[in-house]
Amino acid sequence: MLKVGVLGAGHLGKIHLKLLNQSSKYELVGFYDASLENSEQVQEEFGYTSFKSIDELLDAVDVIDVVTPTLSHFEVAKIAIKKGKHLFIEKPITNTFAEAEELIALTEKHKVKGQVGHVERFNPAFRAVASRIENPMFIEAHRLAEFNPRGTDVPVVLDLMIHDIDAVLSVVDSKVKDISASGVAVISDTPDIANARIKFENGCVANLTASRISMKNMRKSRFFQRDAYISVDFLEKKCEVVKMKDVPENPDDYAMILQNAEGVKKQIYFDNPEVSPNNAILDELETFADAINNDTTPIVSLEQGAEALRVANAVIASFSD
Q1: CA pair distance 271, 241, nearest whole angstrom
Q2: DSSP secondary-structure letter at 157?
Q3: Are 210 and 143 contacting, i.e. CB atoms less than 8 angstroms apart?
Q4: Whole-model pTM?
Q5: Residue 152 and residue 188: Cα distance in Å, rounded?
Q6: Which of 218, 217, 213 is nearest to 140 (CA)?
Q7: Which of 127, 160, 175, 202 is least surrounded by Cβ atoms within 10 Å, i.e. has the fewest?
Q8: What would the mean pLDDT of 268-272 be, rounded to a whole number?
Q9: Domains of the chain, residue spans
Q10: Percent of the chain beyond pLDDT 90?
């Protein structure tokens, strides 16, 4: 079993601590949190061992799980990598793309593995259809959340939209060609609602909307490709695959048939895969353990996390264009 420690025992950090403590692939050694008061409270309430310093925790583990505020990601990750520790780091990977590039170079130098916590890749609805998304040419995503003061220190693009940016980049096999976006700050100092139109070199277009001032929560994406439409509800963990095929010679009486202006007929049918319930956070943590033990590439590599950050920052930069 891999010995693991957690940096940061805030809201998400506590969730990671609980799941790592339950995991059969890790031995939870303990955690470090910069707040002495919070450290004592977490240790007393849950029984996890609190370490007095980052170095002390790092010396006791094989893997470090970074769940600290984004601004501190680079510094603590750099210390961990230089000590030869495998790194799981929450999204966004770092504050800047240059920092992410440096971390990638360091992991190669010190021969350790890294994974970024883009948890929606492990959402059971997305996993059920990901292999069926083939060369999508138009993608539309809406990620709407009710207002929560936690997280408003960063633009909504880095808080929410980056989830969909990563998901889109994982299924579009092409480089980003152009980005146009707009964002509005309503109750924060940074945009609370944003829309981005991302064009790829192969002609695919992704239209992404994110808001943290909505009346209801929504996390839906739709993927359009030749002869197929695929929808994913990340919140309700549901998916739908609608396909079209040439009409057979003797179609069923109840078959849904469309005919275009040229007279070409297509039959519509549903091909919905089964969604297997899971704990996405536990899955991402345990697949990282598998990547370490089997010496394979993590499902969400540092390179992929860095690219999601680069595109997210390009979206933010285009607000002022």
Answers
A1: 5
A2: I
A3: yes
A4: 0.92
A5: 6
A6: 218
A7: 175
A8: 82
A9: 2-118+280-299
A10: 83
Backbone angles phi, psi at 203, to 5 degrees: 100, -10
Task: Return the pLDDT at 293.
Answer: 98
What is the C-alpha to C-alpha distance for residues 154 and 190, in angstroms, rounded to an integer?
Answer: 7
Architecture of domain 2-118+280-299: 3-Layer(aba) Sandwich (3.40)
Residues 6 or more apart in contact with residue 260 via CB below 8 angstroms = 266
> Is the pLDDT at 251 greater than 70, yes or no?
no
In the sheet that holds 86-90, the strands lie side by side as: 26-32, 2-7, 63-66, 86-90, 114-117
The residues, ordered by sequence, that sit 6+ positions from 64 with a Cβ below 8 Å of its Cβ are 4, 5, 6, 7, 57, 58, 80, 85, 86, 87, 88
Average pLDDT over residues 165-182: 98
pLDDT value of position 264: 73
How is residue 25 written in tokens? 């692939």
Q: Is the pLDDT of residue 46 over 80?
A: yes
pLDDT at 321: 59
Nearest to 167 by CA among 219, 108, 228: 219
Task: Look at residues 203, 197, 138, 131 and name the one whose alpha carbon lies nearest to residue 174.
Answer: 203
- List the structure tokens of 136: 């999508």
The token pair that represents 37 in the structure block: 């008061």
CA distance 279 to 31: 22
pLDDT band at 306 (very low <50, low <70, confident <90, very high): very high
Section 307-313 average pLDDT: 98
Paired tokens of 127: 């996993």
